UniProtKB/TrEMBL annotation:
It comes from the Eukaryota. One of its GO terms (cellular component) is plasma membrane. It is found in: Cell membrane. This is Bidirectional sugar transporter SWEET. GO terms for molecular function: sugar transmembrane transporter activity. The keyword Transmembrane applies. It is a multi-pass membrane protein.
């Protein structure tokens, strides 16, 4: 929950200034995708109500942030954001569901999904660190 909550000051600022001010939507779109992956994993694994609960909250809050972003983003940015959202959260997510349902069964499916989720999560958290290493500053991490 704290990961989703950390964006609150950014979106309060966007709302207050009625401008996205160069902030990017991709981290929030990726966060929705990550939460959706974990919800799917929990569904396949069964008896994982805590994973479903926390990631459902994550989807809800990140979609709220994306909605605020889209309201105040310039048209070109809004179109780009929606394309990325559909590509990742509809096309790629559907492909993962389809492939894991068709190619794997039982505990193998759970393990493959677990590795997909972990691999994606590591990438999500490593991306901001690469920005810090490359720029030697934390100033642009939230932008």
């Amino acid at each position: 929950m704290s990961a989703a909550h950390r964006h609150s000051p950014t979106f309060y600022r966007v709302y207050r200034k009625k401008s996205t001010e160069g902030f990017h939507s991709v981290p929030y779109i990726v966060a929705v995708f990550s939460c959706m992956l974990w919800i799917y994993y929990a569904y396949v694994k069964t008896d994982s109500i805590l994973l479903i609960t926390i990631n459902s909250f994550g989807v809800f809050i990140e979609i709220a942030y994306i909605t605020i972003y889209l309201v105040y983003a310039p048209k070109k940015t809004r179109v780009f954001s929606m394309r990325i959202f559909v590509l990742l959260n509809v096309v790629v997510f559907a492909a993962i569901i389809l492939l894991t349902q068709l190619l794997f069964t039982g505990s193998i499916r759970v393990k493959v999904l677990g590795w997909i989720c972990v691999g994606f999560s590591v990438g999500v958290f490593a991306a901001p660190l690469s920005v810090i290493v490359r720029t030697e500053t934390v100033a642009m991490v939230s932008r």
